[in-house]
């Protein structure tokens, strides 16, 4: 007979690096099945947001940007960190405006996801912004340069399946949108 999966008990946690947008912690936890201690590494970060701006012409407002991890230009949707004291919906509206110049009267939640529960305890808050309109210029910074690309909704599945859109958190947000639109 199976006992089921039980939680581990954290015995100790120590920060070993502060990398500005995340920190690295070493966690010592006790196995519930063997009582042995093991070390794990956890990346602490603020919550994240992704937003899918959709124009009145049924186009997804995407952005192209260079990503240092893969050293490639990617096709994504606006997103980023939730600043201290900021709500996820406000962060999504801010990121959408900064990265694309678009805004919308209302953002609707598509739900909350765990980005990678093996390493990150934070959450990804996902939103859709219907009837998004360009109201501003893109606000590029010295470390982030984005370029807007409008994608017809009808092409979205093809871009996801082909791997043109391959950022896992962006893909999860977009697949969730497509699923909810079917229902």
* Percent of residues in beta strands: 35-45%
Largest sheet: 4 strands, mixed
Q: Could you tell me how far the N terminus lies from the C terminus, measured between alpha carbons in angstroms?
A: 39 Å
From the spread of the alpha carbons, the general shape counts as elongated
Mean pLDDT: 95
Number of strands: 12
Spans where pLDDT lies below 50 across 5 or more residues: none
The CATH superfamily of the largest domain bears the name Nucleoside Triphosphate Pyrophosphohydrolase
Tally of DSSP helical segments: 3
CATH architect. name of the largest domain? Alpha-Beta Complex
Q: Give helix % range.
A: 10-25%
The Cα radius of gyration reads 19 Å
Within the CATH hierarchy, at the fold level, what is the topology of the largest domain?
Nucleoside Triphosphate Pyrophosphohydrolase
Spatial strand order of the main sheet = 7-4-10-9
Name of the CATH first level of the largest domain: Alpha Beta
Structural class by sheet pairing and helices: alpha+beta
H/E series: EEEEEEEHEEEEEHH
Walkthrough of the structure:
By secondary structure, the chain is an alpha+beta fold. The protein folds into two domains: 9-44, no CATH class; 48-182, Nucleoside Triphosphate Pyrophosphohydrolase (Alpha-Beta Complex), CATH 3.90.79. The chain has three helices and twelve strands. It has helices at 88-100, 156-162, 168-182, and strands at 9-18, 23-30, 37-44, 48-53, 59-67, 72-76, 79-81, 102-103, 108-113, 124-129, 133-134, 146-152. The strands form four sheets. The chain has a four-stranded mixed sheet with strand order 7-4-10-9, with helices on both faces. A three-stranded antiparallel sheet has the order 1-2-3, with no helix packed on it. A hairpin with a 4-residue loop joins strand 5 (59-67) and strand 6. The longest helix has 15 residues, at 168-182. The N and C termini lie far apart (39 Å). The relative contact order is 0.18.
